[in-house]
Amino acid sequence: MDDSFEVFGERGGKTINDPIHGHYTLPDYAFQMIDTPQFQRLRDLKQLGTSYYVFPGAVHHRFEHCLGVARLANKMISQIRHKQPELQVTDREEKLVTLAGLCHDLGHGPFSHAFEEWLLMYKGIKWHHEDMSKTMLSHMIDENQIDMEQEDINFLKQLITGKERESTREKQFLFDIVANMRNSIDVDKFDYLARDCLFSGIKSSYDWARLVHHCRVIEDEICFNAKEVYNIYEMFHTRYSMHKRVYTHRVVKSIEFMISDALTLADPYLNISSAIEDPAEFTLLSDSILKTIETSKDPNLKESRDIISKIRKRQLYGSAGEVLVPPNQHEDITSVRVEDIIQHDSSLQPNDVIVDHVVMNYAMRDKNPVNHTHFFSKYNPNQKFLMQKEEVSLLIPNQFRESYVRIFVRDEKKVREETKGLVHGRQRLAAQRAFNKYLESRNCNPSPLRMMPDPVTKGREGVIHQRQLHF
């Protein structure tokens, strides 16, 4: 039984049974925030947004994730406090770190990160859920008359974002626990990777529990036992793998774009985007917005309802190709716009095509986060040092970022030919050919895994073969 569980047994609190962490207890002060409309809203936000439409087991929500992060944040700070009493961690610091883990995702919108992309792509609004989490935190405290000093509220907001750490006199290692801007190793990542892997059915080999257990503070920084260095690489590889296989799955992205279009068409009548300016309205905004549109009889929402109906019928936007961008062409290819594609085919209109830019990395853009992580040896636990990847394994990658450009077509008119089993989406094929011409002009080759073959091709004997194309 861990120390935090025993301590909470003495102080009170409530016990939670969780598929990731088993039985654990959160203190009473956490439930002052959990039992509010602002936090309970997280029950209506799926953790993986549109991934649920492809991975039907991914039914978990931001609510249980935030509880799990609070549990891990408390476990880590309690362990540090117990093992290193010289750090003089206070009850206040333990409480605020725990609450930072609990409240770090208060600001997520419908369908999680897809909402942020919608605001940027369709409304031109640069909006981040971390900033909204700070707004929602203040609103929650005021509306529910939670007794907190303003100084503590300000520090709690800093712990949630992980920013402004240099401008405070608080202990710096406290910022490494929930939102670690130093190397991105934090309890938020520990929980969401374990939870997302479990519910999406993806196997993971890294062990987050060892990272929580084998850490200590050296020179105001959380460091890890050197024997866990490969485990940390496995964690970042798991994150990359989840982005590649789940979060940016092409069908997930197709449905995401369809929901974005539905929100765009409904926004003038439902004022969805204006909710970010009013925390009271934002409290009422969740994944249920689709049902609000779908069940409305308002004729102004018909186009939006039609898109949602197509999602239900699996009439999705089609993928017309993708390219893995060579590192030396990253800036050139990733800046491609719709206009750059459609200029190669006069039959395409700007609204026919969607260009999707996908960037995957080890959480620090093109850098290796382990190069920013300090370790210690059991023989000298008070001396921190860096480890080069060549000291760990010769099979660790040299590149820590990859970029894709994908092309989707809306194909709203469903222009198709059906002759003797041949199904040919004209718009989709036109977009693919235009994309290929664009790539040829940049001396770049599309991915053969995402190439839709021409519906009619000649075999070796000159005989015409027809290919069934699956949408």
TrEMBL record:
Keyword presence, Hydrolase: yes
GO BP term, pick one: dGTP catabolic process
A molecular function GO annotation: dGTPase activity
Regions annotated as coiled coil: none
Source taxon at top rank: Eukaryota
SMART domains per the UniProt record, alphabetical: HDc
HD domain boundaries: 62-193
PROSITE patterns for this protein: HD (PS51831)
Keywords tagged on the record: Hydrolase
GO cellular component: nucleus
Family annotation (InterPro entries): dGTPase-like, HD/PDEase_dom, HD_assoc_2, HD_domain
Name of this protein: HD phosphohydrolase domain-containing protein
Organism: Planoprotostelium fungivorum
